[in-house]
From TrEMBL:
UniProt keyword list: DNA-binding
Protein's name according to its UniProt entry: TetR/AcrR family transcriptional regulator
Superkingdom field: Bacteria
Lineage of producing organism: Bacteria, Bacillati, Actinomycetota, Actinomycetes, Kitasatosporales
Ranges of the DNA-binding region feature: 28-47
Every HTH tetR-type domain range: 5-65
Keyword Cell membrane: no
InterPro entries: Homeodomain-like_sf, HTH-type_TetR-like_transc_reg, HTH_TetR, KstR2_TetR_C, Tet_transcr_reg_TetR-rel_C_sf
Keyword DNA-binding: yes
């Protein structure tokens, strides 16, 4: 969590918007300062430069996403199907509610310098691990019948991540409808089969 004072928020948001619109490589530190309405000296008071800002923005995006996923998993209980539903729903909602954060997290990690990239990849892998553990648990319990759990997990993550690129809130599909569709798609991909309900033995 950042310990910088509140004055840095305008700079971070300006950088976020510039990176989203122009891309990290095409954005200059002057572009960010101009958009934030601050001088270069004020910007450098809070951040060493553009790379420092990218690190802060990526960390913020991942923290926000994992916060949603952790909360959803906690409410889902122990059933792998419900856990997968929770992860998919959280991912879809994050991609639709925070398209700019999502886009930068999904595309600009490659712009990190080596000293920051390894730590970022390690943090980023947490999301993959959450999906992997849920899918593997479902396969082990016999409710996910896919013979290709790794491929299924990758497919589910990829389709959820792609939402950030095409979804528009003013379009014909509501977020709730999108969540319902993608949960159904995810359960189909893993070939979910609920456990048979046992009938009580007759006396």
């Amino acid at each position: 969590m950042s310990t910088r004072p509140a004055g840095h928020k305008a700079i971070v948001e300006a950088a976020r918007q510039e990176f989203s619109e122009r891309g990290y490589g095409a954005t200059s530190i002057r572009d960010i300062a101009r958009r934030a309405g601050v001088s270069l000296s004020a910007l450098y008071y809070y951040y060493k430069g553009k790379q420092d800002l990218l690190v802060a923005i990526l960390d913020d995006g991942l923290d926000a996403y994992f916060g949603m996923c952790d909360k959803a998993l906690e409410a889902a209980g122990d059933d792998p199907a419900e856990q997968l539903e929770a992860l998919v729903a959280a991912t879809v909602r994050f991609r639709t509610d925070h398209p700019v954060k999502s886009s930068i997290v999904l595309t600009e990690g490659r712009s990190l310098e080596p000293e920051h990239l390894a730590r970022y990849r390690k943090n980023e892998a947490r999301g993959t691990q959450q999906f992997r553990e849920v899918v593997e648990r479902g396969v082990a319990q016999g409710i996910f019948l896919t013979p290709y759990p790794d491929d299924a997990r990758r497919a589910v993550i990829a389709m959820c991540n792609a939402i950030a690129e095409w979804y528009r809130t003013e379009g014909p599909v509501s977020v709730d409808e999108l969540v319902e569709r993608y949960v159904a798609l995810a359960l189909t991909v893993v070939e979910y089969r609920p456990r048979a309900v046992r009938r009580p033995a007759r006396a």
